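Reminder to self: keep the SMILES exactly as supplied, no canonicalising. Ligand is flavin-adenine dinucleotide.
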Amino acid sequence: MELIKKRTEIIRNGNDKGSFVAYWTSNTLRVNNNYSLKIASEIALDKNLPLKIFFYHNESHYKCIDRHTIVLLNGLIELADELNHFGHELEFVNCINDLEILNLIECHTIIIDKTYTKRSFDYTLEILRNYNANIVSIDNLYLPANLISNKQEYSAATFRRKYYKVTNSLIDLTFDISRELTRVKKIKSSENTKEKILKRLASLKDEFIETVNLGKNGAYASKENLNIFLNENLTNYEENSSKPEFEYVSKLSKDLHYGFISPAYIIKKLILRKLDFSSSFVEQLLIRRELTFNYTLNNKNYNNINGLPVWALKTLNEHGKDEREYAYRLSDFENGQTHDEYWNAAQNEMLRSGYMHGYMRMYWGKKILEWSNNFKDAHNITLKLNNKYQLDGRSPSGYVGVSWCYGLHDRGWKEREIFGKIRYMNMNGLDRKFDMARYVDRVRNL
Ligand SMILES: Cc1cc2nc3c(=O)[nH]c(=O)nc-3n(C[C@H](O)[C@H](O)[C@H](O)COP(=O)(O)OP(=O)(O)OC[C@H]3O[C@@H](n4cnc5c(N)ncnc54)[C@H](O)[C@@H]3O)c2cc1C
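Structure tokens returned for the bound complex:
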């Protein structure tokens, strides 16, 4: 119960009138283990009001390109199907002028998924400003962000210490809401949601990826992805997940980003396999991932270079005028046209699959810093490409991943040209540790 309280934040008290409760789903596109849906259903039952479930998304505001929208819409089809199973209909609105059909003016309480970046939060509030309903935001992380820390944590180590104070053993936090969902009164959608989504989908196309290869997305598909990982790759994760020539990784970052799957569900499966906090997969999923939400929530410059720690900015500035051996433009990077075969392969992996192996992401970001005119442009370019092409991009983990390459959550290293005290990576390191020819080959065959 305490945990639920910590997840709940009253954003605004409304006038307590209205004829229905609404759940605006955005980053938690699933029925199972969805705290927002649970709380929305409970409020609706308590007030004896029907529940409207809707999705509104302004594609241009969120800088989606078609690959993101294709994944999203496929996920929404699965969500609509799941909700139908309980007798609910998902209302889908993708144009600001259509918001009227939601009739939110009559709404008693609007439940929203907590947004972890200021930009999304401000946008959500701007939309809701026109209505008098109560607004309640719900945190769907494994542990609610404000339970761990309300300030920006310095590093994974400080965050981990606080996390372990709350719990140092994995707890099964999954729950079932079928009873509430079945009991709560329903509201019919004003249009045929699936038809509308399919129509929008038909007009979308990605330049690099066959649409069909982006097609399997959503709550059901994400559970399949998890099962494949657990059955085929988990035993190799500890030792081999950092090797880019193999794929002993979960590739769940996109499913987590859209909320197709909940961390709680993954943890439940890991508990069954007797894993605990000593497992590096748990470290990535809970500590490294949730640390990124701590950053975007507590640093208003999460999306630009000024969010970096003072020492990192200082050292980058001190080396701002160092001579660069290469100074590529955005288009050179974007087209994978550098002198470095490994870097180009990483870029191509992202272009062609919407995913880049985790180890290569670090090398990729570091090299943009090294081969750009200046570190500010470099940070911009890294973020721009990451958010444009990664299917898990435009997320807290994306902002942090990019800024990590520029010193965030890291410590100072031996000073050198261009990087100053920022951690450096080079090609020899890749050759020493990995079978890079095999990686390049793997990408070529994508
Ligand atoms: C330059 C750069 C850019 C990045 N951009 C993104 C991004 O846009 N979106 C994104 O989700 N992650 C990003 N990361 C973090 C990390 O590389 C990816 O989360 C991870 O590679 C995703 O692959 P996976 O799902 O197979 O991970 P796995 O190794 O299977 O890990 C399981 C889960 O743990 C989480 N995780 C793993 N590593 C990290 C990490 N370093 N930081 C935060 N969470 C982590 C992810 O949610 C991941 O799905 C970036 C890292 C760097 C260095």
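Points to follow up:
The radius of gyration is 22 Å.
The mean pLDDT is 95.
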